[in-house]
Amino acid sequence: MFATAGMFCAIALVAACSNGNNNDNDNAGTGPDPTAATELDRSAYSITVMTGPTSGVYYPVGGAFAEVLTEAGYNATAQESSGSSENIQAIMGQEGDIAIAMADAAVQAYTATEAFSQSVPATDLRSLMGLWPNVCQIVTTADSGIVTFADLRGKRVGGGALGSGVEANARTMFAAHDMTYEEAEISYVDYGEAIEAIKVGDMDAAFVTSGLGNATIKELGEAKPLAFVPVEGEAAARLTAEFPYYVTTTIPADVYGTAQDTPSVAVMNILIADQGLPSEVVTDILELFYSEHGLQVIGDSHPTAQENIRLDTGLRGVTGIDVPIHPAAEKFFADKGVVAP
C-alpha cells in the first residue's frame, strides 16, 4: 500500500531474480541516474510492486522494478502473487501500488466484465506504461492433425482454468474464428495440466498465454514434436481492430524447434496503478525505469524485458483501451516525444 515513511516503517526490498544477462542495453531511454538528487523525498514513500509467480516472467521483472526504486531511495518491495487478477485486486484494495497485469484483464476489471463481472467496476485503475506481449500459443503435436484453428472442432482442448486470463483469451480466439466452445471438447484446466495430458495422449491441444520460450511447452517438446495452431488472416485482423491490446506477432521456429514460424497474436502486459498515486511519484518512477541504469537493471532480469521494455514502446498496449493512462504518465511520454503505435 502506498504510504509515506511517517505512516509506515520502511519495507525491505525482495531481491529481483536475474538470469545473469550482462549484455549492454541498447535501448536506453532518457532520464536521471537513479542516485541523482531530486526535489522529491523518495525516502518518504513506501511502494509495493505486485509481480507474479516465481516460475514466470512477472516475478523477476517486478523484482527489478523494486530494485531500481530502492537504489533510488524509495522504500520498495516486490510482492509475489498469482498474476494479473490478484495484482489488479491488490491495486483495487490498496494493498499494492504498482502492478504488472495483462491489458485485457485490466480492461475487464475496469469495465466489470468477463472474469470481473461480479465485481464493482475498478474505475480508479490507471495504466502507466506498456511492457511486453504475452503470446497466444495454441500448442499441439506435429502428428495431431491440427493444422488450422478450424481443426480444433471436436478435439480435446485445454482452455485454461475457468476465469483465468488464459481462458479469457481462449474464448476470444474462438469468437474471432466464428466458433464456440461447444464445437470442441474444452477442459477448464491450467495449461500445465493440459500439457501433461497432451504428453500421455489425453488431450489434443492447449492454450498457453505467456512469453515465448515457455518452460512447460519446451518440456512437451522434449517428449513429442511440437506444432502451433496459427492465428492469422481475418481472425487476427478482427482481434486487433476490436481489441487494441492485441498485437500480431510470430512464434519463431527456433524458439521451440518447430518446422516453421507460426503467426499468432499477443496481449500486452502493462504496468498499472491507482489513480491516487501522486503525479510527481509517477513521473519519477518512469524517469527511473527509462533511465540508462534502470533499463539495464530491468533488462538483466529477463530476456523478454531486455527485448521489449524501452522508451519508444512505452505506449504500446496502453493507448486506445478502456483503462485510462495516468495523467502524469501521459505527460511524461508526450514530453519525451513518444507517440502511440
Q: How would you describe this protein?
A:
With 341 residues, the protein is of the alpha/beta class. It folds into two domains: 197 residues, Periplasmic binding protein-like II (D-Maltodextrin-Binding Protein, domain 2); 134 residues, D-Maltodextrin-Binding Protein, domain 2 (3-Layer(aba) Sandwich), CATH 3.40.190. The chain is 33% helix and 20% strand. The chain contains twelve helices and eleven strands. Strands 1, 2, 3, 4, 5, 6, 7, 8, 9, 10 and 11 form an eleven-stranded mixed beta sheet that branches. Strand 2, helix 1 and strand 3 form a beta-alpha-beta unit. Helix 5 packs parallel to helix 6. The radius of gyration is 20 Å and the shape is globular. The two termini are 32 Å apart. About 8% of the residues have low confidence.
What value does the average pLDDT take? 88
| CATH topology tier name of the largest domain | D-Maltodextrin-Binding Protein, domain 2
How many distinct folded domains? 2
Shape: globular
Highest-level CATH class of the largest domain:
Alpha Beta
- Helix fraction bin: 25-40%
Extended strand count: 11
Poorly predicted parts = 5-32
Q: How far apart, in Å, are the first and last alpha carbons?
A: 32 Å
**β content, as a range?**
15-25%
Name the CATH homologous superfamily of the largest domain: Periplasmic binding protein-like II
The helix/strand order is EEHEHEHEEHEHEHEHEHEHHHH
